[in-house]
């Protein structure tokens, strides 16, 4: 499964579900009549923000760490991350009793950095660019001998993320459309693999901020398009697709809908007021995307699944976002 360019199979996703079961409890599927009315169909919210680390990333990180063999594990793990993968990898490493180093960009969420450090990670900062993150991580890997656990381009991580959709469709088999946020594409790739193994007719949509829409532009062009804007208050969605995740999304005919910053804030507001769920901007993007699909007349089935991906809210920033809105 770790061959360059390889995509995990449904067998890998199911094996991941068994492997992580003792460490990653299933998350609930939530319902809200007000959300149903807002969208115009039955919406099933997969509450990935209720993980111990506040995000779906715990699934993939745990699977990848547990896949390490007895020679690799003592060397520890390392990754670059804006926050949620960092905390998840730190927790997974601590549970296995191995070291963890994470490279985080300057200006990353203080809440997310504190979570990684509290879990035992050594946090190394770098300039807030992808090139700087990759360069600093390469130095860490050379210095420590650690095994890199990439936040989205690792097949073990992708397989782990797919377990969320396995749980969702086991809970609600009638779902005919699933929406997940897209950044580097690990979650959306795992979603497509799991959903289409269960029911090839399920429509898979990614949702993406218009200010960081490389996935949308890449799938329209038929090849990776990584230039263009890369800015959004959904700071967990600023990574870009890899060749591996792009190929998976292409092969599963995944489509991507883009949304504005205002639509993200409105989805956060509805989730907080109507569903009583406080989520970070990235965690509200899938619901905002579903609302956008409905608004532009996309036919929606009676049952739709939405992956609410994260709830690591910086409260000061959260209140300022709502005040500005």
Essential attributes:
single chain; 325 residues; alpha/beta; Rossmann fold; 2 domains; six-stranded mixed sheet; 13 helices; globular
Notes on the structure:
The protein is α/β, with parallel strands linked by helices and 325 residues long. The protein has two domains: 10-56 and 154-324, Rossmann fold; 58-148, Rossmann fold (3-Layer(aba) Sandwich). It contains 13 helices and ten strands. The protein has helices at 10-20, 33-39, 57-67, 84-96, 110-118, 130-144, 155-171, 186-198, 214-221, 243-251, 261-273, 281-295, 315-324; strands at residues 29-30, 42-47, 77-80, 100-105, 122-126, 147-148, 177-181, 203-209, 255-259, 303-308. The strands form two sheets. A six-stranded mixed beta sheet has the order 1-2-10-7-8-9, sandwiched between helices. Strands 5-4-3-6 form a four-stranded parallel beta sheet, sandwiched between helices. Strand 4 (100-105), helix 5 and strand 5 (122-126) form a beta-alpha-beta unit. Helix 3 runs parallel beside helix 4 (84-96). The longest helix has 17 residues, at 155-171. It is globular and about 55 Å long. The termini are far apart. The mean pLDDT is 94.
Could you write a compact summary of the structure shown?
The chain has 325 residues and is α/β, with parallel strands linked by helices.
Rg over alpha carbons: 18 Å
Residues in helices, as a percent range: 40-55%
Order of helices and strands: HEHEHEHEHEHEHEHEHHEHHEH
The overall pLDDT average reads: 94
In percent terms, what proportion of residues is strand? 5-15%
The second-level CATH architecture of the largest domain is 3-Layer(aba) Sandwich
Assign an overall shape: globular
Enumerate the spans where pLDDT stays under 50 for 5 or more consecutive residues: none
**In which order are the strands of the major sheet placed?**
1-2-10-7-8-9
Query: Count of DSSP E strands?
Result: 10
Separation, N- and C-terminal Cα atoms = 45 Å
Count up the domains: 2
- CATH fold-level assignment of the largest domain: Rossmann fold
CATH class of the largest domain: Alpha Beta
Largest sheet: 6 strands, mixed
The structure class reads alpha/beta
Number of helices: 13
């Amino acid at each position: 499964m770790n061959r360059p360019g390889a995509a995990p199979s449904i067998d890998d996703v199911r094996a991941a579900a068994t492997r992580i079961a003792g460490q990653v409890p299933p998350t609930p599927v939530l319902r809200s009549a007000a959300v149903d009315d807002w969208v115009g169909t039955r919406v099933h919210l997969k509450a990935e923000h209720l993980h111990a680390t506040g995000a779906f990333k715990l699934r993939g990180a745990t699977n990848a760490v547990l896949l390490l063999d007895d020679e690799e594990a003592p060397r520890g793990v390392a990754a670059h991350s804006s926050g949620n993968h960092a905390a998840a990898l730190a927790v997974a490493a601590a549970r296995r009793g191995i070291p963890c180093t994470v490279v985080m960009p300057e200006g990353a969420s203080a809440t997310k950095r504190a979570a990684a450090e509290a879990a035992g990670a050594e946090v190394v900062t770098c300039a807030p660019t992808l090139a700087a993150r990759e360069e600093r991580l390469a130095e860490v890997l050379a210095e420590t001998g650690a095994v890199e656990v990439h936040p989205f381009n690792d097949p073990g991580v992708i397989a782990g993320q797919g377990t969320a959709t396995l749980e969702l469709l086991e809970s609600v088999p009638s779902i005919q459309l699933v929406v997940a946020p897209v950044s580097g594409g690990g979650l959306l790739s795992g979603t497509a693999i799991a959903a289409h193994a269960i029911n090839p007719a399920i429509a898979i949509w990614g949702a993406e901020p218009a200010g960081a829409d490389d996935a949308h532009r890449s799938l329209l062009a038929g090849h990776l398009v990584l230039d263009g804007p890369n800015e959004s208050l959904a700071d967990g969605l600023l990574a870009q697709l890899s060749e591996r995740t792009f190929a998976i999304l292409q092969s599963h005919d995944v489509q991507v809908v883009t949304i504005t910053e205002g639509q993200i804030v409105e989805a956060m507001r509805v989730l907080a007021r109507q569903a009583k769920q406080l989520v970070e901007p990235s965690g509200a993007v899938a619901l905002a995307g579903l609302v956008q699909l409905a608004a532009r007349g996309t036919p929606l089935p009676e049952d739709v699944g939405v992956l609410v991906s994260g709830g690591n809210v910086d409260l000061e920033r959260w209140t300022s976002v709502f005040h500005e809105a």
